[in-house]
Design a protein that fits this description.
The chain has 103 residues and is α/β, with parallel strands linked by helices. The chain contains four helices and five strands; from the N terminus they run E-H-E-H-E-H-E-E-H. The longest helix has 16 residues.
Length: 103
């Protein structure tokens, strides 16, 4: 499954109403650690059809980043049944990301 670009306008439909767990990656083009984490997030999207993976560009979606008090990037949030159930800040290994989603 490919990565979905999440915006204020599609957040409710793609994240809150999703029937699958959602992994959201808050990132920015100028963020070095984000560039390290991005390929791992992309790989998870390709390998796991049971997980919806979305990316939120904090420069484009400042209101959405503000709603979740994103202070540092990369930040990963996990949603299940419309509720945020897990989060992580910084670069973490793929196995740890999958644990967040399964958690």
């Amino acid at each position: 499954m490919s990565v979905v670009t999440i915006t204020e306008s599609n957040f409710e439909k793609e994240v809150l109403q999703s029937d699958k767990p959602v992994l959201l990656d808050f990132w920015a083009t100028w963020c070095g650690p984000c560039k390290m984490l991005s390929p791992v997030v992309d790989q998870i999207a390709e390998e796991n059809s049971a997980i919806k993976v979305g990316k939120v560009n904090v420069d484009d979606e400042q209101e959405l980043a503000g709603r979740f008090n994103i202070m540092s990037i990369p930040t990963l949030l996990v949603f299940k049944n419309g509720q945020m159930v897990n989060q992580s800040v910084g670069v973490i290994p793929k196995e740890r990301i999958l644990q967040l989603v399964e958690g």
